[in-house]
């Protein structure tokens, strides 16, 4: 398996620095420093991309549409993927297709593709600490159980099971979501998916703002993604206790 020392030796041989590698792998230099100096694990998708660079495969040129970044972010949001990993997967698939089309012109129109399945296995254990409603505010049931997943749960993260359809199709009923604990101000930015608690119960919604017709002020509201559901308002007297991180795509009960 490729090691950090192999990558450092290769960079020295070809006369390139870590900034160059960060640019080619679509990450920050800080991430590359973590891989090569701090021993942080290299994500499988990034490792595959580095191996392609080290093998001397030619770089691919393609013409990007004007709204490429907007399209890509929309795809990543819809599939609950990290933007950098999404780009890396797309580049890998495009590279394979490019090898089959060497007789064609080198500049190709970019066509979005489905991301490759994750290479990692279910090596991490995590508890599902309870339910969270995706509908009206309701008390959260405590039904803890253990799962195996392909990503570790961070220090301030926890996993909840979604009950309800108000966040569909992005977050389906029955999904397991990773949340990050939120205990201090400021209030998250509008558009963030949050866990909200008050005396009525707990719910998962997108944070929004709406003009109060009585006061004329902009009030915070809880907005569902499913148009069949209405806003929960006013958002008053409760607290935001968690921030949505991602939906677990691959997991199994331990």
Fraction of residues in helix: 25-40%
Q: Low-confidence parts, pLDDT < 50 over ≥5 residues?
A: 58-63
The name of the CATH architecture of the largest domain is Ribbon
First-residue to last-residue Cα separation: 28 Å
- Quote the CATH topology of the largest domain: Umud Fragment, subunit A
Q: What structural class do you assign from the helix and strand content?
A: alpha+beta
Number of strands: 11
Strand content: 25-35%
Count of discrete domains:
2
Order of helices and strands: HHHHEHHEEEEEEEEEE
Q: Which whole number gives the mean pLDDT?
A: 79
Strand order, main sheet: write it out. Answer: 9-8-7-10-6-5-3-4-11
Number of helices: 6
CATH class of the largest domain reads Mainly Beta
CATH superfamily of the largest domain: Umud Fragment, subunit A
Question: What Rg, in angstroms, do the CA atoms define?
Answer: 22 Å
């Amino acid at each position: 398996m490729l090691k950090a020392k192999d990558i450092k030796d290769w960079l020295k041989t070809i006369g390139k620095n870590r900034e160059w590698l960060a640019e080619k792998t679509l990450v920050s230099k800080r991430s590359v420093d973590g891989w090569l100096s701090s021993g942080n694990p290299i994500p499988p998708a990034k490792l595959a991309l580095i191996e392609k660079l080290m093998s001397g495969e030619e770089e691919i040129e393609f013409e990007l549409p004007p709204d490429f970044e907007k399209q890509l972010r929309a795809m990543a949001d819809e599939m609950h993927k990290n933007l950098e990993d999404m780009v890396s997967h797309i580049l890998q698939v495009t590279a394979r297709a490019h090898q089959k089309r060497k007789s064609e012109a080198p500049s190709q129109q970019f066509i979005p593709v489905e991301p490759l399945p994750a290479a990692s296995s279910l090596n991490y254990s995590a508890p599902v600490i309870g339910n969270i409603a995706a509908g009206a505010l309701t008390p959260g049931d405590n039904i803890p159980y253990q799962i195996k997943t392909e990503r570790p749960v961070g220090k301030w993260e926890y996993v909840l099971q979604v009950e309800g359809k108000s966040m569909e199709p992005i977050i389906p009923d029955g999904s397991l979501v990773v949340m990050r604990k939120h205990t201090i101000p400021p209030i998250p930015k509008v558009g963030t998916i949050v866990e909200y608690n008050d005396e009525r119960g707990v719910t998962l919604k997108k944070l929004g703002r709406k003009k109060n017709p009585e006061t004329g002020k902009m009030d915070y509201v809880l907005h569902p993604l499913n148009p069949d559901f209405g806003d929960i308002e006013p958002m008053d007297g409760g607290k935001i206790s968690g921030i949505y991180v991602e939906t677990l795509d691959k997991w199994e009960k331990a």
